[in-house]
Design goal:
The chain is built from 2 helices and 22 strands. Helix content is about 5%, strand content about 55%. It starts with a helix and ends in an 8-residue tail after the last helix. It is mostly beta strands and about 325 residues long. It has one domain: Beta Barrel (AttH-like fold), CATH 2.40.370. The strands form 2 sheets. Strands 1, 2, 3, 4, 5, 6, 7, 8, 9, 10, 11 and 12 form a 12-stranded antiparallel β-sheet that branches.
Amino acid sequence: MRTLATLHPEGFHGRGRTRSFFEGWYVKLVSADRAHRWAVIPGVFLGPKGDSEAFVQVLDGGTRRSWYHRFELSAFSGEEGRFDVRVGESHFTSQGVSLQLADGPLRGELHFSALKPWPVTVRSPGVMGWYAWVPFMECYHGVLGFSHELSGSLDIEGKRVSFDGGLGYLEKDWGAAFPAAYVWQQTNHFTAPDTCLSASVAVIPWLFTSFRGFVVGLWHQGTLYRFATYTGARVDRLEIDDAEVRWTVSDRRHRLELRTERRAGGLLHAPTRTQMHRRIEESLDAVVQVRLTTLNGKVLLEDTGACAGLEVSGDLKRLTGGERPSRG
């Protein structure tokens, strides 16, 4: 049922689908000393000709190595109303993960406490706002946990590593394909406690045209500052080069300036409309300078986020050129 799925972005949206669909959950794990930074991505891909696969991807942010564990579709199961996914012997929920990957670098169990998801209401069901109700979007997005504490330990290539007191982050994507061009960044390792940034800008297909859509959520000590296409916010600056991403957004009350230092990353697999193997680079070592002010210049937050996830992919001129939404 579409209404149930839309109001539960954390759940599985592929029930009844047989082709032209993907769904993946992004699980970020960082140890308390920040020495171990990992992303684990369980998911499923259904190709246009009935070819399908389940998978668990793993990225080591320290060494930039990555692994793609492919499974038969029958090895995947997911619940519709909650985050509860199994791929092979591995299990992923909003309470934690159990990783049992043959020939993989990680094994063990971690527990999550006190997730803070992006708020969901009928008028604005999560990070996508009212766009979540549009049935023909190329890619849907959800933020399931801005920042939560980890406990437990993992065997990392035979060495036992504690993640007690570490920080986690959860989000997901589903739909037909990843955008043709996008920038995504996330960090919850600030000096200020209880602070997390999740931000993305992408080329969004819309009927017979496309536009540059964006959504930025800055969670800071109990308050979510939202800047998005659907909130009426605007991009004042977006510059991308080999060294940095410089991005400023504003609305009628606040201005948010982001300056992200690009770092080398590892290669992951991302979905196109025909296959699951578009290669994208993701860093778990980027650094984001954040400055949030009121429009009259009062500084609400000025801090630097470490251990940042960063992806910069596709035809970036379409992003920096600022394509506008269709009004047709």
